[in-house]
Amino acid sequence: MGLSAISIKRVSHWIAGKPVESASGRSGTVWNPATGEQQASVDFASVEEVDTAVAAAKNAFRSWRATPLSRRSEVMFKLRELVDANRRSIAGLITLEHGKTLPDALGEVARGLENIEFACGIPNLLKGGFSEQASTGIDVYQIRQPLGVVAGITPFNFPAMVPMWMFSNAIACGNAFILKPSERDPSVSLYLAELLREAGVPDGVFNVVQGDRVAVERLIEHPDIKAISFVGSTPVAKSIYEGATRQGKRVQALGGAKNHMVVLPDADIGMAADAAVSAAYGSAGERCMAISVVVAVGSVAEPLIAAIRERMAKIKIGPGLESGNEMGPLITREHRERVAKYVAGAEAEGASVVVDGRRDPAASKGPHFLGTSLIDGVKPGMRCYDDEIFGPVLSVARAATFHEALSMVNENPYGNGAAIFTRDGGAARQFQFDVEAGMVGVNVPIPVPVAYYSFGGWKASLFGDLHMYGPEGVQFYTRAKVVTSRWPDPASSRVDLGFPQVR
Ligand code: NAD
Questions:
Q1: Annotation marks residue 120 as catalytic
Q2: Which residue from 185, 236, 446, 468 has its CB within 8 A of the most atoms of ligand 1, so it is best to mutate?
Q3: How far is the CA of 232 from the centre of ligand 1 (A)?
Q4: What is the C-alpha to C-alpha distance for residues 402 and 485, in angstroms, rounded to an integer?
Q5: Ligand 1, CB within 6 Å, residue ranges
Q6: 190-232: pLDDT as tens digits
Q7: Mean pLDDT for the chain?
Q8: Model confidence, pTM
Q9: Nearest alpha carbon, ligand 1 atom 36
Q10: Can you point out the beta strands (E) in 33-103?
Q11: What are phi and psi of 254, to 5 degrees?
């Protein structure tokens, strides 16, 4: 497929269809989470380098927006084939820098690919409305046009999928895109850039600027950036939303989460325990849709905790590239220490640590490794409940009734995902009706919507009006223009100074 060699020693930018090394003199370390050793360094863009990428994108936008829909769709189909054919290479790069297991990384690629598949249907998605004879001899129609140069700023935990959430629709809609990936696992962005070029995306339509807040702040300020999509932690999401909207930009900024899974007494205990363990410890808990709190209602707590412990003991922890492992290391040594501190502090706050991941033999596999933890008796007000831990720690909170459980979910400041496990259809329906979260699972622990719906939380999990990808993604990356048109008919033409009205 003709990929040029990608150095994992130095990860640079991608501007106007080719790799560009930074001259900023600033860079960051890319660790190998499985060993704790440095495996690459990533360039950090200067303001001038961001400006160069924006200029390349602006230049490419002019002809890309005029490129026929059928051609843009053809490019997306070709990209779909290339990503599909290179799933393993993409997943391998993810595992190498993120640390998640290879099957998990393959799952990430598959969920990202869905978004490219959705964007293949762009001619259909951009069809506008047409009203013939809105008034005598007058037709009114709406068209959706791309915004121009748009930027995406992405988190470490899905280095391929989240960029695909954004650029698939952005590019298919006719925009030029600038990606600022996470500095923790930046290489996959360059691999995707090569595939986009090979698929026929013109030079400058897709660009990558590597870096830190210097790059992000320039993207927010740059007058030629028309919209910003962000996914990351809540404090950064909020500040990007505030900063970019102040500059008059369109913004969707997705933040952190604290996802609750309510288990009612009538639930199938085995199924609920399978789901809780998979959703809490998959990807070492570094998923924005991970379950971090199980709310056990009434008598379900004891048997559920026993079933969860039984399953936890069997999880195989080790390097993500070694087959058979189900959970890998955490992204950095500092993050591992931060997560471990929540477990260490839980007892002092009045909770009880049922399983302590720090004592797991797997915790000695390397400086980024930690075992799985289970904390019982967790309540609002405790740090291990209030904060997003983003690690392999599952809390159990107890509630006497369905309504008490629902109130706990709704009083939490985050509102990304929420799930209920029950056999009672009425209770599930009431939960769906009342719960304040953007994505709800009924006997499904990680309800990430398929690509033809849109992804987004409520409350502190999303700042902005439109959710990401799917139909709302298309809306986000386009703006509407309504045309009122009359073709002259000399027979009905006359001077009329009154306000236009239907005749
Ligand atoms: P992060 O907020 O630290 O970083 C996200 C991006 O913002 C990165 O590209 C980073 O370089 C940049 N950034 C970081 N600090 C910045 C600053 N002060 N100013 C400007 N830019 C800055 O997040 P992360 O640690 O990479 O990812 C984990 C977080 O992302 C978790 O909170 C998780 O819940 C969240 N997340 C949310 C979703 C969602 O859909 N809601 C999806 C994935 C991850």
A1: no
A2: 236
A3: 3
A4: 57
A5: 153-158, 180, 182-183, 212-213, 216, 231-233, 236, 254-257, 288, 388, 390, 416, 457, 461
A6: 999 999 999 999 999 999 999 999 999 999 999 999 999 999 9
A7: 96
A8: 0.96
A9: 232
A10: 37-43
A11: -90, 130
